[in-house]
Design brief:
This protein has 189 residues and is α/β, with parallel strands linked by helices. Helices cover 35% and strands 25% of the residues. The structure holds adenosine-5'-diphosphate (ADP). Adenosine-5'-diphosphate binds next to β2 and α1.
């Protein structure tokens, strides 16, 4: 099992954002977590990432507590809103994150060029991220979330605000990732 959640509760003061939630995600499965704004989707993502702690209930990610440091190396995360330096190009952005991950230069070179190709950002010259469309930023975010070659991908609203063609491209990419053995939990409206 990649994710196992039982009777999970997250309360902010009086506000219950997650209320007795139980479900599991098997290896190599794509699971969509559906709900309107305020349903608690982002809170769930943050709980799985170990950025927030549950008020009660249990939560296991890749067989361990979300607070386990080793486990984090096997997780990729695309937040709802990506934050990138606007004055860098797409490759520079990915090299910056590869550096933070402690990747060897030669591994990073190979990985960055593979990922840029995969998300369709390989032929855009030296355009700066600040000039990117919404869809291009999402695709760059997806590439960033894949830098560490994670087993488990958490995608928060990966298609929000995208036009139908962009949506289709992201969904096709998600299917490709499943074929490559990834487990994917994504949220959507
Ligand atoms: P979603 O991602 O589905 O839109 P959220 O997880 O962001 O939902 O929010 C779920 C509920 O928890 C909402 O009612 C929201 O106002 C509340 N909430 C989210 N984050 C906080 C916070 N840091 N403090 C207090 N309430 C919060």
């Amino acid at each position: 099992m990649s994710i196992e959640i039982s009777r999970l509760v997250k309360q902010y003061g009086q506000q219950k954002a997650v209320d007795e939630l139980s479900f599991s995600v098997k290896k190599n499965e794509i699971v969509g977590f559906l709900g309107p704004n305020g349903a608690g989707k982002s809170t769930l993502m943050k709980l799985i990432l170990g950025h927030l702690y549950p008020s009660s209930g249990t939560l296991e990610v890749l067989g361990k507590s979300p607070r386990d440091i080793q486990t984090k190396q096997h997780i990729g995360y695309l937040p709802e809103r990506t934050s990138f330096y606007t004055n860098l190009t797409a490759p520079e952005t990915l090299f910056f994150f590869a550096d933070l991950l402690g990747m060897e230069k030669s591994d990073a070179n190979l990985r960055v060029s593979q990922l840029l190709k995969m998300v369709g950002l390989d032929g855009i010259g030296r355009r700066l991220v600040g000039e990117f469309s919404h869809g291009m930023r999402k695709r760059l975010g997806l590439a960033q979330s894949l830098l560490n070659d994670p087993d488990l991908l958490l995608l928060d609203e990966p298609t929000a605000g995208m036009d139908p063609v962009g949506c289709r491209e992201i969904k096709d990419l998600i299917l490709t990732l499943k074929k490559r053995g990834k487990t994917i939990l994504m949220t959507t409206h």
